[in-house]
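Write out this protein's structure.
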Amino acid sequence: MKILFIGDISGSVGRKAVIRILPKLKKEKKVDLVIANAENSAHGSGATTQTIEELMTAGVDAMTMGDHAFARFKVSDIYDKYPIIRPANFPEGAPGKGYIIIPYKKDKNILLINLIGRVFMKLDYDCPFRKFDEILANINLPSNNIFAIIVDIHAECTSEKIAFKHYVAQRAAAVLGTHTHIMTADAEIISSGMAYITDVGMVGYADGSLGLDNEGIIKTFLTQIKYPHVLPKKGRAIFNSVIVDINERDGKAKSIKPITKFINIE
């Protein structure tokens, strides 16, 4: 089974890049399932009905979120209506769900879990390590025909992601990091047969800072005065993603391959 996971989709440039690149890529690589992090899809912060429907029309099957999961008014509506999940370790009472069972074949399903890190993050989230344990304790994997677990861990700190990798190594098929918008060069299959990458990267404006226009970012660094963050509406876009190939017999990853493409958005 081939799973394409797309990094943080940022603003209209990111969405347009997905719309133009994904259909052909999906066909060329014979992808069975497409997952994308959509937490920046609505003008760089959060998601809306419009952005989700655009991405689904382009071929995205399921979406994850992050620290901007509730950045948009009435955002809880999207969690009731679409195959989109927010970090499971938001405190109890937060709208939405933190995991989803995705049908694949008659007797084979994927469990997709979304978690958020705590180091260097602005809010106080529950422990992602313990939340992973809690989810698995509450789901009967055999009765739900779950043969592989995919985790999007949305986190700033490299060491936190790596520690989590080792914590779930015997239980997950893939741990894929998001949030920093920079693809890391450490994609690997570890000894337990799990695919891992510290950060998948982003889909968005390529010639700025993390998808944003450079001017305001540089002024802020020079003056320590916070200038507005501007998302360009056109320009060169980067498309970061990985393809994880999972063995359907044992639920372990056979390979993880980073894919980066560039495209001009007018």
